């Protein structure tokens, strides 16, 4: 809704042309009516209801026009009654096709592959990285989002997506004109693997090395081998070390579901949720002493995955898009308009709007088998969240209760990654790391904020081992979107039923940014890379991300819940156990989970209402109450 401009559309998919025109009207209409109602001040909740109605219509249109069939899945029917647990490789979730959403299936698409005429090196990715992305000075996100929130989203990405690589390498050399400003004169990386599929949208597609379901694979692994690595095979539990952190193998690699490109903050969340899983096992064993190791594991995995999905939906996302409408919207996704109390008392009896997506009688995929999409991966390229240094705090301090813990040390982020990061984390410990990350704001998603240390990064392979060649991640991300046929910014917006930009000033008011965009792209707004557009776009107040990225979120956040039978048909006490379901229902936020394991620490140091906002921020107990139930201000 930020742009109300008109434009001719060069690259929009022909089917979408008439809809785009209608969306202009819809966006404009809603914008002015909401604004007017707000000004009149008739009823303080009315603008929120109207905002929700707008988002409902938007989501419906995206479900209709932005879910494309990709790849061929020829799975088989199977016995859903017998397989009422999450499998190691994500098979047997879709009710009729056992392969949908399993490891190694294709990425989907929200729009056809790009039709733009520009080449892979046009403009050169290293020029885009150096002139528009590279951090000049660290810009933080204010108090809205902390380092736990930053690690959380990496934790989720590693649950959902990872493009399988080819065995063939590519080398990118920096052009002469910027070679001196580039940390790497050239860098090598593996191509993205593509397989011929001849689906309706493209000839070849990319494969997801992770299971796209919200199944906790980041802690449980993406296949049988990964799952066996993390289990103790006693009382359903996962391996964790005596200090509550992850165990490591003889090479110093953490024992967890996913070990690629990890750093201490990410590994900390893996350990916290392995601990949560084990606590669920203990609880289940007390109430159901007859359950064996396998059954305890299966139930605890379902419960822990649902806790993670719930925290992401009603806690993390509400902090990311900090507006009353989105806070209400995300709670409605989980509980429905009638709220938690109604659902607790009567169950899911009134459909998705009134009772939420979770607990629907049947999963819904809107006619397109579930997968996560290329465009979804692109809008989650948020490495700008990462700072240059991690600020460690002294939690033994006797500072008065209302002060934040004093700073002990600042450690380079580079030193907190990989094996070195794991070694450091083991001396820091879980509580100190949580308090430190809780008190540190993460980076803002804006231009000139891409961490410099990632422009010369030794990435890790799937086994967690260092790669031989360093990469310039900022340049690589620009290349990846082009290589995978993700539309450039304007084409992306048109395909999302949004108004494209006509001139740089439509994107931002910042004159310095406009100058830099002109220097890289000339006057050709169609050339603008998606990443640059997402980072440059003027943000809606309260949103940490762009509006363009948000519409992909709106579609996929619901899809992850409504397409999964373990959040719909099987979200019941028979599958989860009565006590397991109660555990999910009682856990609302990450703060609840941290509090369960470290009550003294949260009492002492966590002042805010969400564990994802900076911890010395004023608490806002209201944010736990659905907006439509809150008293008038
Ligand atoms: C220290 C922390 C991190 C490191 C070292 C790291 C490193 C990497 C590397 C090496 C890649 C693969 C690049 C390629 O070959 O295409 C990657 C991909 C990606 N990262 Fe990160 N990352 C970190 C944190 C994050 C965070 C906080 C986010 C936030 C959302 C994020 C989101 C992504 C996404 C969406 C991809 C693309 C995945 C795909 O291609 O399927 N990463 N990261």
From TrEMBL:
Span of the signal peptide:
none
**What SUPFAM superfamilies does its record include?**
Heme-dependent peroxidases (SSF48113)
CDD domains membership: PIOX_like
What are the UniProt keywords, alphabetically? Dioxygenase, Fatty acid biosynthesis, Fatty acid metabolism, Heme, Iron, Lipid biosynthesis, Lipid metabolism, Metal-binding, Oxidoreductase, Oxylipin biosynthesis, Peroxidase
Required cofactor(s): heme b
Specify whether Nucleotide-binding is a keyword of the entry.
Answer: no
Q: Which InterPro entries does the UniProt record give? A: A_dioxygenase, Haem_peroxidase_animal, Haem_peroxidase_sf, Haem_peroxidase_sf_animal, Oxylipin_biosynth_metab
Give the highest taxon in the source lineage: Eukaryota
Name any one GO molecular function: heme binding
Which residues of the sequence carry a binding annotation for heme b?
Answer: 383
State the Gene Ontology BP annotations. fatty acid biosynthetic process; oxylipin biosynthetic process; response to oxidative stress
Q: What is the name attached to this protein's record?
A: Alpha-dioxygenase 2
Organism equals: Prunus dulcis
